[in-house]
Amino acid sequence: MNRTKVDEEEYWNSSKFKAFTFDDEDDELSQLKESKRAVNSLRDFVDDDDDDDLERVSWSGEPVGSRTRPGSFQSLSDALSDTPAKSYAPELGRPKGEHRDYSNDWSPSDTVRRLRKGKVLIFLKRTLSKEILFRELEVRQVALRHFIHFLKEIGDQKLLLDLFRFLDRTEELALSHYREHLNIQDPEKRKDFLKTCIGLPFSAEDSAHIQDHYTLLERQIIIEANDRHLESAGQTEIFRKHPRKASILNMPLVTTLFYSCFYHYTEAEGTFSSPINLKKTFKIPDKQYVLTALAARAKLRAWHDVDALFTTKNWLGYTKKRAPIGFHRVVEILHKNSAPVQILQEYVNLVEDVDTKLNLATKFKCHDVVIDTCRDLKDRQQLLAYRSKVDKGSAEEEKIDAILSSSQIRWKN
How far apart are alpha carbons 359 and 189 in whole angstroms? Predict the structure, then answer.
């Protein structure tokens, strides 16, 4: 038995997906709505319902758009988290709602019956001409859906494209063609291939994402060539102190931004590797940009850059600190990067919610913040309780004693 036949037999014997009936009788799959196939948005970085994912960047060498090995993304740095990261790059989404796992409800006889009917497709695929097979599948939508999934699983891209052409499903045809970029290893050839995808009949939204993907790889090729030269020359301090761990080619946009903030933070906006250039070109939201820049500069312990990132100046010349990600998030990230306590205290003090401020100050031993906050709240009991947590004879203990003995404070308790 040749390789293709082995793959086909394995698919039908191991698949968890419900098989079809050519009569479409009593088949719940026929009631499920086919979802739209689309590439994920390059710009959909910020999910307010799951902010933890914003802290994660990957730099593993995994191809842009690939999710063939879930969980294989490795963290670019330990600046924030070593949890597997989201890939914020164009990728083909798996259709939703096409299949469900009913196998737990099958009786042994049901299983045998369904597997036999599923294998009908293998038989027809081997014996019928494409035109006849496609014509029969076209009028049996459940069988068609399962056959499409089957072709994707075994990787028969040629037959899948022929089927989409026959069905005149132009957008799916374009998306399947686009997915072929994953098989192209050479960056220049992949870039050229992506350029051929730009004019294909995608939706307007997907066309924009394909254009972004092409532009991103084009930028990465330029950055990679320049940085490889700078690193080998050994004359650039940042590359000497922090040698690159991997190529930037084919990395997701959020990883490219992190890389740019790490190695090229001070570059002029006119250069392709400038973080501001990337932000404007790909319309990266402020929240994502600030979070990524903070992670990169904090890892380098560039505290002046961190301060400048949050300092704004109004038209009168007054400065104020502002954080679109919330200062509580800033504090957590700074602590993970071993920021000095003086810097931590400054940002803990900027947290508006008093309870959150006290919790963070206590957690990270920002003693002055806890003491001053308890004093401002006139909370004598909490201040007394905190006195037992500082070192005996320390400056903090003396400060607490001086406040507790003050006759000018009208305590609430």
Answer: 53
